[in-house]
Amino acid sequence: MVIDLTRDSDSDEQQHQPQKTIHSFFSNLPHRSPSSSNQLKRKNRGSEDTSVSSHRFSPAVNGSANHNNYNYSNKSSSTNASKKPFPAPEQEPLISNGPTPSPETQQQKAISVVIPSPSQQLRREILNSEWTRVDTSFKLTGISEKYYPTDAYEKRAQKGAYPARKIKKDYNNRSNIPLEIGQTGPSPILTAQPYTTVHQQLAKSFLRKLSKIQGPPVTLARGDERMLTDFAANFEFINTYKIRKGVQPVPESFNGGCDCGPGCDPRRCTCLSEEEHSDDKIVPYRAATDKPGLMVLTPDFMKRTSMIYECSSRCGCRRKCWNSVVQKGRTVRLEIFHTGDRGFGLRSPDPIRRGQFIDCYLGEVIPKKTADVREDLAASTHGHSYLFGLDFLIDDDDIYVVDGQKLGSPARFMNHSCNPNCRMLPVSRTHGDERLYDLAFFSLRSIPANTELTFDYNPGAVRTNSTASGSGVGGGAKGQKEKIDPSAVKCLCGEKNCRGQLWPNQRKGTK
Ligand SMILES: C[S@@+](CC[C@H](N)C(=O)[O-])C[C@H]1O[C@@H](n2cnc3c(N)ncnc32)[C@H](O)[C@@H]1O
Asked: What domain of life does the UniProt record list for this protein's source (predicted)?
């Protein structure tokens, strides 16, 4: 017995093409389509398994899946179906046994409920409807997550657990700094800056500082940047003295000058000092033999310990004069490098001629009293001393001292040697100020490129018969044999004539 649940079929269609239409309808429901390869089976009462074929759909009374299928397939004719209740399963056992039963089969006990093919009209609608077409972007909607899990739960949970952050970007307040969860890295404050980055920044800053130095380039040796990490942040290069409180430069009107005109005559220029027992001028410079445009110290002057008086701003020749070597500035390139055992040192990538001006020692100019305090502090902290006494012409407690520790020039990196290749000479460009002058370094001999530049920090210790006084870093005791002080800075110059120490520790003056 066949029960038409829909009453929506025309009998001819139902007879001839029931399977085709139903199949195409379900084939677009991959989750529900009872494909032939996956037939639903249930045990018939008192007989073998009975298959429910793909084109014949029976409403099951004891299977939720089949129940669902039934409702689904009758969607379009639910009104009619609701008018005709299902037969009670207890009265008539269900048999699904292949194609539409023949009249003979009707005589059997079972009742087959066949879902008929849709009417032509319905079929047209189904075929024309969008969702029957094969569409790879087709997505199921409205289906229970119980059977078809989606990630909607996770999405909802994420939204609920971590609502969108609305934090004022006030990173000065540490509590406002977001702690990112589930992202690539921690929040900014927890991000450790790699050492290289910090170091690179300091090296960059140091190079910027180097570039501010006037004259030929001053560079930092390759590979030694890392050593400068601490130093770079606390040091500035300067191009002139920094006059500090308590230092009074003599007014310009007190300065002297010559009236030689555009070109000074070395035999009569009044700027030049005279020999002690004659009117002969002491001429400090001459042209280099291999480079006439370059002025170097005369061999005679190199033997002296005397101040160089260059022409001043009050001279008629101004700076074009041959007698203004130091004022014209540095002519050699310099390189700061790490010595390994004596901290940083200085060298030049250029060969340097004998008597050639190299650089001036610069720094803060402070009164001696201030220098004494700074020196005590330095001794108790880092041990390095950058104090250079301006005590060449006067010998009292009223002198000025140059401190190159925090502000200075490349010459600040020159180390001590007991067999130096450079020396410091005092140079006056004012003639009127006995307490303020330049500390200029000249080479004592020809220096090949890339040789460390050194000078004697305590020249007075060896010049025991000298009549002139000298000063150095830490000061040298005039005309005295240096005694070894076990607490003094040990000299590491490595020269054969090494005196063993930089200067005696009991030094309190700046000489
Ligand atoms: C004017 S600084 C020279 C630059 C210093 N090396 C630096 O790294 O800044 C003087 C200091 O360098 C060190 N120094 C210079 N010459 C030295 C030497 N021959 N032996 C041992 N230490 C020396 C001493 O610590 C001294 O106080």
From this structure: Eukaryota
The C-alpha atoms of residue 422 and residue 354 are separated, in whole angstroms, by 9
pTM to 2 decimals?
0.61
DSSP code, position 337: E
Q: How many CB atoms sit inside 10 A of residue 346's CB?
A: 24
Distance 76 CA to ligand 1 centre (A): 99
20-56 burial, b if ≥16 CB within 10 A, otherwise e? Answer: ebbeebbebeeeeebeeeeebeeeeeeeeebebbbbb
Residues 446/352, Cβ–Cβ less than 8 Å: yes
Nearest-atom index, ligand 1, CA of 473: 1
More confident of the two residues 131 and 406: 406
Q: How far is the CA of 177 from the centre of ligand 1 (A)?
A: 46
The C-alpha angle with vertex 20 and arms to 14 and 26, in degrees rounded to 5, equals 110
What's the whole-number mean pLDDT along residues 44-56? Answer: 38
C-alpha 67 to ligand 1 mean position (Å): 96
361 is catalytic: yes
Q: Could you report the per-residue pLDDT of 299-333, keeping only the tens digit for each?
A: 999 998 889 999 988 888 866 789 999 999 999 99
Gap between the Cα atoms of 79 and 74, Å rounded: 9
Residue pLDDT, tens place only, 408-451:
999 999 999 999 999 999 999 888 888 999 999 999 999 999 99
Q: Ligand 1: which of 228, 342, 346, 487 to mutate, judged by most atoms within 8 Å of the beta carbon?
A: 342
Ligand 1 binding pocket, CB closer than 6 Å: 342-344, 383-386, 412-413, 415-417, 473, 489, 491-493, 502
Q: Where are the alpha helices (DSSP H) in 417-469?
A: none
Q: Where do the DSSP E strands lie in 357-456?
A: 357-360, 364-367, 387-389, 400-403, 407-408, 415-416, 422-428, 438-443, 454-455
Cα separation, 498 vs 490, in Å, equals 10
Q: Are the CB atoms for 310 and 325 separated by under 8 Å? A: yes
The atom of ligand 1 lying closest to the CA of 338 is 8
**Which of the following is catalytic: 285, 361, 386, 400?**
361
